[in-house]
Design a protein that fits this description.
Subcellular location: Secreted
Oligomer: single chain
Distance between the termini: 88 Å
Number of helices: 19
GO molecular function: serine-type endopeptidase activity
Number of strands: 40
CATH topology of the largest domain: Rossmann fold
Largest sheet: 7 strands, parallel
Protein name: Subtilisin-like protease SBT2.4
Family: Belongs to the peptidase S8 family.
CATH superfamily of the largest domain: Peptidase S8/S53 domain
Radius of gyration: 30 Å
InterPro entries: Peptidase_S8/S53_dom, Peptidase_S8/S53_dom_sf, Peptidase_S8_Asp-AS, Peptidase_S8_His-AS, Peptidase_S8_Ser-AS, Peptidase_S8_subtilisin-rel, Peptidases_S8_3, S8pro/Inhibitor_I9
Number of domains: 5
Helix content: 10-25%
Shape: globular
């Protein structure tokens, strides 16, 4: 009896304990903050594309029913794995990756992610790092109209037959840069491309009009990462931001589209390849961007059959716990390359810091940004006759029929009565109209100061514009603060007179003049304003000065292997292209930039802008040479580039200090400034394919071959002796001790036999010998070039040189050398 009683008492106790344990576990799960994780599994996604070869016209194989069944099987296997591994209700699968990689993304807790790492068949598990955007005249600047455009039948044919995919913020389908002209129908057969048009808000079925060939959007990661704002995070391929439209029009926008902003025409815009088709893969939203969505977009772009993939978005930071080459994002780019897609990627906007590139891998083309020689000068004329130079895309000040207007310093226009200013310390920055006396500033030009609020991000140019509009001012002048130094001014279009004066010396002239013309009472309060000013025309471009110059923001090399910044034997960035002050299409919604709301064009800077320049140029090369592989196109772009500016001098780069320039190196510009008209006919190319990239990975110092197998599914059966043995169109040796021999293999892609003479400019501290010093190649002929490096004097830093192969038919092939010579 006693035992029975004991049992009846014990059972409720045990049940209570079990219930409390379950509740504790659930509570733990509830309180654990969820994150997005990217998962790579064993087993390949069955490829239906393969990299093209010289005897293969199309790089795309259609999906058959068996492949479709395989994809369905992969999705089911991902679902079953999650169901059997993770707790019910603890996760939400976002995407299945099933075309170029076998994996998925999932929104779950850290503890559940640990279960994934130990699961059977798991290769890699990474926490999503998030993504960011890397943010008319350039066809002429690159000499396209008289060069390759003319060869391809003019702007009405340039890029025809090539599909460029854009993974970005979507596209504005109503923009004239993407309109279809029924009088100029497309004639190229693109049956290889699997077009799909996802519709939704602001994106009707007619959006895919032939110019826009396909459009998809991916939002599962974004929706898991945050609560989306329905007013701007549009769930369709429509571009609410403007960034995606901007980059798409740079690469493939229609030719001759008038650029009109605030009623003024700034010229006509044309894409690099105006007849190329556009495939849109929206994966970034105004509120958030995730790698989960970006990888899903890349997966589908390759499935659809794009020829070129333009990536002006990328990870916010390097991977934390794996090699830069072996994270899931870069592995997805490797498999895109394996499928025959040329990947063009923004180098990043973290310059001028060294090793700041976010395009790491040798299988993608990393693009740095440069200026052009187009500038928009403006001027401020003071009542005493002084003329000061500045920047501002606005017309001259002719309000009320007068050129001259009262010039008022913001801090002298503060309301004396009533409530005190909202931000007394920032009153000089003109952010709050309620702080200023409308009787003083009405019809005047107000002087705002670039002070602490602008440096810490609390003050904006938009704040000034709102103040000017609210109080009926004629315009504004934003001057540098002598206490902070010069600031960097970029031209922005203003609907009224406005000018940025970024130099302290000029600001002092303005302040002194104002003080001389302002009367004050015994308390120091301004009582009379005698200063006058006029803003000059700022919308007319001038085309003078040195260019190209590597932009300050453009990320720099050397390339790195891991988060500890161990150096890689890969030259990054790869190439330099225009990325500073680029006019291109925009979305009037302009969800992330209120200053541009209502505009259909924007003038922006960033490696986001330089990247589609190269993608469009690659499309022109692909059109001219349809059998070329991505490696051949990348090689042609690199070996025909220039290291000299328009003055015939070595390219310079902007430094950290305003207006500072220093001689650029390949770690700023890669192989040099892109030259599309030479790249279409390079003479020789250096080619690396998928198996070579695996051999490269297997040769990395102290590499865990299991990590390579886990990431790629390939065994390290044929590693290179050194990573620099990869047949790139450059040679980078990050630790040269004693001597070493490097080989490069060259192929003649010309139509005739040509003889080349080899010469070399060795990097400082080294001796470089070439074997052979001359050779003759028939069409499609191949030649190995042995390059022997020897340390002559150890150096503290990298030094640079180049190999020049000069053909008797006027082809010139340049191979950039970057070497760090060390003592033995």
């Amino acid at each position: 009896m006693g035992k029975v009683i004991a049992a009846s008492i014990a059972l409720p106790v045990v049940a209570a304990i079990l219930i409390s344990m379950v509740l504790a576990a659930i509570t733990c799960l509830i309180h654990e903050e969820r994150s997005i994780y990217l998962v790579l599994m064993e087993g390949d996604a069955h490829a239906f594309r393969q990299e093209p070869s010289m005897d293969q016209h199309s790089s795309t194989m259609h999906i058959n029913s068996e492949a479709s069944k395989t994809h369905e099987h992969l999705v089911s296997s991902h679902d079953l794995f999650l169901q059997s591994t993770l707790d019910t209700g603890s996760y939400n699968k976002l995407h299945s990756y099933k075309h170029i990689i076998n994996g998925f993304s999932v929104h779950t807790t850290p503890s559940q992610a640990e279960r994934l790492r130990s699961g059977a068949g798991i290769k890699l598990v990474e926490k999503d790092r998030g993504v960011k955007m890397m943010t008319t005249y350039t066809p002429d600047f690159l000499s396209l109209p008289k060069g390759i455009w003319a060869q391809e039948g003019g702007e009405k044919n340039a890029g025809d037959g090539v599909v460029i995919g854009f993974v970005d913020s979507g596209i504005n389908p109503f923009h004239p840069s993407f309109a279809y002209d029924p009088m100029l129908p497309f004639t190229s057969n693109l049956s290889r491309f699997e077009a799909a048009c996802m519709t939704g808000p602001l994106f009707p079925p007619s959006s895919c009009n032939g110019k826009i060939l396909a459009a998809r959007y991916f939002s599962a990661g974004a929706q898991a990462a945050t609560t989306l704002d329905a007013s701007k995070d549009i769930l369709s391929p429509f571009d609410a931001d403007g960034h995606g439209s901007h980059v798409a029009s740079i690469a493939a926008g229609n030719a001759g589209v008038p650029v009109v902003v605030n009623g003024f025409c700034y010229g006509k815009a044309s894409g690099m390849a105006p007849r190329a088709r556009i495939a849109v893969y929206k994966a970034v939203y105004p509120s958030v961007g995730t790698l989960a969505d970006v990888i899903a977009a890349i997966d589908h772009a390759v499935l659809d059959g794009v020829d070129i993939l333009s990536l002006s978005v990328g990870p916010k930071e390097p991977p934390q716990d794996t090699l830069t080459f072996l994270n899931i994002f870069d592995i997805s780019l490797l498999f895109a390359r394996k499928a025959g897609v040329l990947v063009v990627q923004a180098a990043g906007n973290q310059g001028p810091a060294s090793s700041s590139v976010v395009s790491f891998s040798p299988w993608s083309v990393g693009v740095a940004a440069t200026t052009t020689n187009r500038k928009y000068p403006s001027s401020l004329l003071l009542g005493n006759g002084s003329i000061l130079n500045g920047v501002g895309l606005s017309g001259p000040s002719f309000g009320n029929g007068s050129v001259w207007h009262k010039l008022v310093l913001a801090k002298d226009a503060v309301k004396i009565k009533g409530t005190s200013p909202k931000t007394q310390e920032y009153i000089e920055e003109c952010q709050h109209p309620e702080d200023l006396d409308p009787k003083i500033v009405l019809g005047s030009i107000i002087i705002c100061t670039f002070s602490a609020g602008f440096y810490n991000g609390t003050s904006t140019l938009g704040g000034i514009i709102n103040t000017v509009k609210a109080l009926g001012m004629e315009g504004f002048v934003l001057i540098a603060n002598p206490s902070y130094g010069d600031y960097i001014a970029e031209p922005m279009p203003f609907a009224f007179s406005g000018i940025l004066i970024p130099r302290v010396d000029d600001a002092k002239v303005i302040l002194q003049y104002c003080e001389e013309q302002t009367k004050r009472n015994e308390k120091g309060t301004a009582t009379e304003f005698g200063a006058l000013a006029a803003v000059g025309e700022g919308r007319l471009a001038s085309f003078t000065g040195r260019s190209p110059i590597v932009s300050r923001f453009s990320s720099r090399g050397p390339d790195i292997i891991d988060i500890k910044k161990n150096l890689a034997d890969v030259l990054k960035p790869d190439i330099l292209a225009p990325g500073h002050q680029i006019w291109a299409a925009w979305s009037p919604m302009s969800a992330s930039e209120p200053l541009l709301k209502g505009d259909s064009f924007a003038l922006l800077s960033g490696t986001s802008m330089s990247t589609p320049h190269v993608a469009g140029i690659a499309a022109l090369i692909k059109q001219h040479n349809p059998l070329w592989t991505p490696s051949m196109i990348a090689s042609a772009i690199s070996t025909t580039s220039s290291k000299y500016d328009n003055l015939g001098e070595p390219i310079m780069a902007e430094g950290l200090e305003v207006n500072s320039l220093f001689p650029a190196t390949p770690f700023e510009y890669g192989s040099g400034f892109v030259n599309p008209n030479r790249a279409v006919d390079p003479g020789l190319v250096l080619s690396s394919e998928y198996a070579d990239f695996i051999s490269f990975l297997c040769s990395l110092p102290d590499i865990d071959t299991g990590a390579v197998a886990a990431a790629t599914g390939e065994q390290c059966n044929h590693p290179f002796a050194n990573p620099f043995s990869l047949n790139l169109p450059s040679v980078t040796v990050s630790a040269l001790r004693g001597s070493v021999s490097v080989q490069r293999t060259l192929m003649n892609v010309g139509n005739t036999t040509e003889t080349y003479l080899a010469s070399v400019m060795p990097p400082n501290g080294t001796n470089v010998c070439l074997y052979p010093t001359w050779f003759t190649l028939t069409p499609q002929g191949v030649q190995d070039l042995e390059i022997q490096f020897s340390v002559v004097q150890p150096m503290q830093n990298f030094t640079f040189g180049e190999i020049v192969l000069t053909g008797n038919l006027n082809h010139i092939v340049r191979i950039t050398l970057s070497v760090l010579a060390l003592s033995v």
